[in-house]
Amino acid sequence: MPSSIFYSSFTHTYTSEASLSPLDLEKIDPNNSKPAGDVLLSAAMSLLHDHSAVITLNPLVTSNVPLENTDPPPGASNFSPSSTPWQAYNITDTKSVLFNLGSTSMTYRAWLRNSDRGYDSIVAAPAGVAIEASWVAEIMEGPDGDASQGASKVKLTETAKVTCSRVFSAFIKSTLSGSHSEMHDRFWERCKERIGKT
Asked: Which residues are registered as beta bridge partners of 34?
């Protein structure tokens, strides 16, 4: 565990939602007989469990290489026990610098593991950056949707604990907010593309 004098932790949370009306669903898949919310949730879960596809939704990612399964990653004990194995990846991010006059790349290790409602991930990046995250998709209930009546809205919630050097904390917060906001937008676009293809 890094010294708290030089390192700090913060929580990054991002929530997005998408809707699918019965009319839109009929246009995409005329043979469908399921409620629109169930169809959208199924597409979301399919994408969340397709690790390479979901990794490349991040606009900074330029490469992801799956590795042979290894021992549980550092920090795995912080997640609920599961018989689902962790899958390791080498991921490369490329970010523009100096007002887009150049770019810099960074390769790091990430582990992903499917869960009943999405996936868990652990990132070990250079300079002691560590991220433990969970992505969860669920049908919205209450005033925005009622699962018992085939709600058409689905919510995606990303919750992450980030540990990093105090020097880089503001930069990492800004990078996560920007890239993951776009990642969520792309996620819903890909979900709707998957409907009718499965």
From this structure: none
At 51, list the tokens. Answer: 């690790």
Sheet containing strand 87-97, strands side by side: 7-19, 153-165, 129-139, 118-125, 102-115, 87-97, 61-66
Which residues contact residue 135 at a Cβ distance below 8 angstroms, ignoring those fewer than 6 apart?
A: 48, 54, 118, 119, 120, 121, 156, 157, 158
Encoding tokens for residue 52?
């390479």
23-77 confidence digits (pLDDT tens): 888 888 888 888 888 899 999 999 999 999 999 999 999 999 999 866 788 889 9
Task: Quickly list DSSP for the chain.
Answer: ---TTTEEEEEEEEEEEEE--HHHHHHH-TT--S-HHHHHHHHHHHHHT-HHHHHTTSTTEEEEEE----SPPTTGGGSPP-SSPPEEEEEEEEEEETTTTEEEEEEEEEEEEEETTEEEEEEEEGGGEEEEEEEEEEE--GGG--GGGT--EEEEEEEEEEEEETTTHHHHHHHHHHHHHHHHHHHHHHHHHHTTT-
